[in-house]
Amino acid sequence: MNKTRRITAVILTLVIIFTAFTTSTFAAGTQVNDQTEYLESVREIIRQKYNGQIPEEEMEKATTLKGIFDTLDDYSEFMTSEEFDAFVSSLSGSIEGIGIQPAILDKDKYATVIKVFRNTPAWEAGILTGDQIAEVDGESVEGQPAEDVTDRIQGIPGTRVKLGLIRQGFKDLVRVEVTRAEIDIPSVHYEIRGDIGYIQIDLFGENTYSGVDEALGYFDGKNITRVVLDLRNNGGGYVDQAVKVARRFVPEGLITTLDYKDEGVKDETYYSSLKKPRYKLAVLVNEYSASASEILTGAVKDTKAGVVVGTKTFGKAKVQTFTPILSFEAFESLNRDNEIKSADASNFIYMIDDTQLAGWGKMTTGLYYTPNGDCIDLKGIEPNVRVTAQEPAGSSVQVNLMEPLSLTVKPNLGAKYFDVYIAEHILKLLKYDVDEPDMILDNKTVQAIKKFQKDNKVYSYGVLDYCTQKLLNDRLAAMKVIKDPVYSKAAQLIK
To answer: Cα(455)–Cα(121) distance, rounded to whole angstroms?
Structure first.
């Protein structure tokens, strides 16, 4: 990351919840004994900018940069420059890792893989949605936050990481070794379902608006005017990306207001100039829809730009910004003739380079409000229509999260491949006789495929060929409409 990008990132504004794409919660602290004035200047930055109750006594006792920021809320932390670069990359659509999204579900002891991105090392290694990560490189990660597990899995492309996975139906840990890579991960996925355009946004990263713009352009070319925007499990991201997306749907007027604690920072107000909304819109949310996704949801609900369907959102209206922190040596050098000394590197933006930074302080600096003036922090947003998603009988995953078969290989008896796992799930949902889904194409599954092929009037020989895979994908697409009650209700409402 060059100097300009690094220093100007001080104005980077985020509203995020912890996801697989964040770096570790705590950056490594460097002991700075006898640097009282320097540490006090860092504390003064927090007093000026931090929006929340400051634990003065604890903060005064802290003797490292990490320790000082650790005294604040769960969304604030100190990052080294390397960790900051990794954090920004995680929202850029490019990461160095294996291509999974872990999360702690309910009160589980282990992080669960809630998404495996296609054509990534994790996908090729056969890691499955629903796998729980028990070990990383032979060490237990029981009880560790998802972001810490993610940080241990990510690393330099070309290096390898060993995972021990708890998988339903397996008595012992499933062990895989995966080579890390530079991974481009889209945050937007879209398709046409009948006469409805469906857009799923995983998070609000640097490429989110361009992805939504591409989706809407595709829909426009097909004369699609009904859109379902799926923000379930979307933990947040960049404010400006959520606002840009909102401007495609929300009518002329206020979208959100960001209220900062620092009197030296101007509050931000975002508006839409859309004269007449083009689309009939439904937004899908759940308890994991947070932060930036709640900015968009709140704007849609308050302006009646669409109908919000699902369950109450997470409730996080805290805004985080980054402040570059000078190294002790740069602090001493740059402040030599200053009566009031500052560790805030943004005050010396044209005088320093990367080597003079200790790192970055990520702090909760403000709150955002919906167009009606509501602060939904710790409250969440109630949907217009409440619908709870339920796992369909016979499946261990929600239908709306299931990926289609990849159409890359034709597994036959004895083959071990991820597409077999998907096919068995679909067959099970269609009431064919298969065992608990795994990646191995056993004889029972072959018989089920033969019956499925016969029922669909294609050659019945038990091979999972491309024709059969396409038929299974068609059935999955239909089930996503029928067996996802949240989507089904939304589709009904916008028709």
So the answer is: 36
